[in-house]
Amino acid sequence: MPEFTVIIPAWNEAKYLPATLRALERQTYAPREVIVVDNLSRDDTPGIAQAWGATLLTCEKRGVAHARQMGLEHARTPWVATTDADSHPIPEWLGYYNAATPGRAALYGPMRFFGLREPYPLLTHVSYSAFLHVARLMGKPNLAGANMAYSRKAALLVGGYARVEAYEDVILGQALGEVGEVAYVPGALVETSARRLDKGVLQFAWRHVRNVTGHTRGYFDELRE
């Protein structure tokens, strides 16, 4: 059974990070290490990560791709799993990924929003799963940084994350598909914050479509000052 390092990039995530770390604490298949890569936060994100017992790294190059790459380079386990600082993997998350690793270079699973009234969490789960299915049928699996895992050796072989503002997770997933099998793991669910809808569903959908079609700028980093 391979060991996992979980990497979490974080920028001003003091509000959300504690719940994410608690979700990792409840994993039935425990990670060997949790790395929080702080991207120059102005709040108590670093202190929260250290108090919980995570390995804290400081990435001085702004941008999630740089933070994810730093985490990858510091990981020492055969497999790496990634999630976001405002996301909650279910307790069986790493267990599902562990069972699916043989013969694979990368894995990914479904997501849904939390913080919405019913039935919207279920609707987001169904719609996102349908989107992932269509992407698979098109031969373009859509791996998201909030819920993916990969062989560390394979990721380093393809050069890790592209240094772009957005879409770095999908680009890595596509590169990993060139050197090995990429598999969808339907049980490996992650719930993620609905704050992505703060500016409206249409704007969120438009930005997502732009990134999925290859645009690598202006996803969430435009929120930075």
SS strand fraction: 15-25%
Number of domains: 1
The shape is globular
In the CATH hierarchy, the architecture is Alpha-Beta Complex
In what order do the strands lie side by side in the largest sheet? 3-2-1-4-8-6-9
Which CATH class? Answer: Alpha Beta
Radius of gyration: 16 Å
Subcellular location: Cell membrane
GO cellular component, one term: plasma membrane
Domain Glycosyltransferase 2-like: 5-152
Keywords: Cell membrane, Glycosyltransferase, Membrane, Transferase
Molecular structure report:
The protein has a single domain (4-213), classed as Spore Coat Polysaccharide Biosynthesis Protein SpsA, Chain A (Alpha-Beta Complex), CATH 3.90.550. 37% of the residues lie in helices and 20% in strands. The protein has eight helices and ten strands. The strands form two sheets. A seven-stranded mixed sheet has the order 3-2-1-4-8-6-9, with helices on both faces. It has a three-stranded mixed sheet with strand order 5-10-7. β2, α2 and β3 (55-58) form a beta-alpha-beta unit. The longest helix is centred in the middle third of the chain and has 18 residues, at 120-137.
Helices and strands, with pairings:
Layout: E1 4-10, H1 17-25, E2 33-38, H2 45-52, E3 55-58, H3 64-74, E4 79-82, E5 87-89, H4 93-100, E6 104-108, E7 111-114, H5 120-137, E8 148-151, H6 152-157, H7 168-179, E9 181-184, E10 190-193, H8 201-212
Parallel strand pairs: 1-2, 1-4, 2-3, 6-9, 7-10
Antiparallel strand pairs: 4-8, 5-10, 6-8
